[in-house]
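Chain X:
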Amino acid sequence: MLGLALRRKDKSNCPKLKKSRLVRSCRGFTLLELMIVVAIVGILAAVSVPLYISYIQKSRIKTYVYPGLHVIQTGVAFHYATASTMPDASRLSEIMISANTTYFHLGLSVNELVLTIDSPASTSKLSKLDGMKMYLRPETQGLRINGWLLRGPLADYLGINTE
């Protein structure tokens, strides 16, 4: 009895008249209503999918690049505090030994570090960002680095451009 009650539709709200407008309204949604719902869902998907993909790329940068970059920034800051200068290329190579640089390459320009995403394989997690650069210039005061000025296409993409 309980199974029958669950399967049977409650038609107490629908009038018993056949071919009446009220009877048709008890049948379900019209095609127009369903098309409007599908259009709204399509618009929401068209807006949210690119934002989600961008969010995933930014989180991958933070996962795969930031830890190694922080190790390097700490080593550069230590070198600057002890030698009063930015490290040269050979000293930078020594600093980079303890950092995980699987997904990026770090170079040295005049008083700034140049980070380049190095992820050419199409199956790589950062392949869409391959070749993007970010320039890191230290803000110094006395014998210490207070912070870093970030610029370049990668900094713009991540929304962390400080210049």
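Chain Y:
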Amino acid sequence: MFVMENNSANPNQQPLVSQPSNHFSKTFIILLVLLIAAVGVGGYFLGARKSASPQNVACTLDALLCPDGSSVGRVPPSCEFAPCPTVAPDETANWKIYESSTFSLKYPPAWPTPIVNQQSTTKEYLFPSSNFTIREGTRYSQSLNRALTYQEIIAEQEKAAVGSQQVTVADIATKKYINKLGASSWEQTIILQPKNSKVIYWISVPVPATTDETIFDKILATFRFVEKKKLKTSCINEPDGVPIITSISANFGPKGTKIEIIGCNLAGFEGDLDAIFVRSDGAKIPLFGGLWHSSYGYTEEERGKLMRITVQSYCESGYETGRYSGIRSSCKKVEATPGVYKVYVTAWGKNSNEVNFTITE
């Protein structure tokens, strides 16, 4: 017999409701306490680390002077001095120094003194061993009937060069150009124009200049323009006045070059005209310009304002005759070797300002 089961709810039966467990509540509270404790401990250690960080360590403010002239301070957390910058050895320390009236540079000790040639609008300094050359002056354009500007010369060079590199020479930003001279010959060239000057400098060397292909850059790193001392442009002869040189007719040339020194108060006792050439080693070459009067070719108007001298060695023969006594006596020869000389005039025991003269080979 098929019997149907009655699943209908008893209206008098209460619904079952789940009651919370006391065990679960205790576990939750314990975990929450542990979490709060962990956060607190972590925050404490993090704060301790921050308080000990180098940024919060105060060091004394004394400084250590380094060999290159710079200085370094103390660095936290140990407050030891920071290391000094590494100074590379100066490869040009023992090189020769060449100084003209407008620039100076260093060059290898094996190279001879440069040969100086005056051309129509430029002066050339040629170092024979490497053909390293400096030309200073202007470049004249026949078609324009004037000298080219620096910008025009640079524009031409930009078109002609097969390569270039940005460089700074004598604190002037410029380019080092590579020019092709022939099928297998090249040249590195720098073109400079000092500030407030119309004179242009071409510095060049064949590639390679020597077995050391960096020689050009090493020389350029030592190149400097010589700051010209502004000579007085006008002066007057004064009784017992200090001699003053305002100009010199030439600032370079070989032995035998005749130059004129112009200024005032140049004449000494009885009209003596005496110039002194000082060699780079300090040796002095006295040069006599004669007396100011007509027997030496001077006019009354030129008295004390003009001196004519010939560049030469002193005491070539080993003997000299006294200017006034006429007595012959021995003297020590001082050779007028190639180089840059400081030139001044002496009169009545007073010395003038100095100008430069370069004796060439």
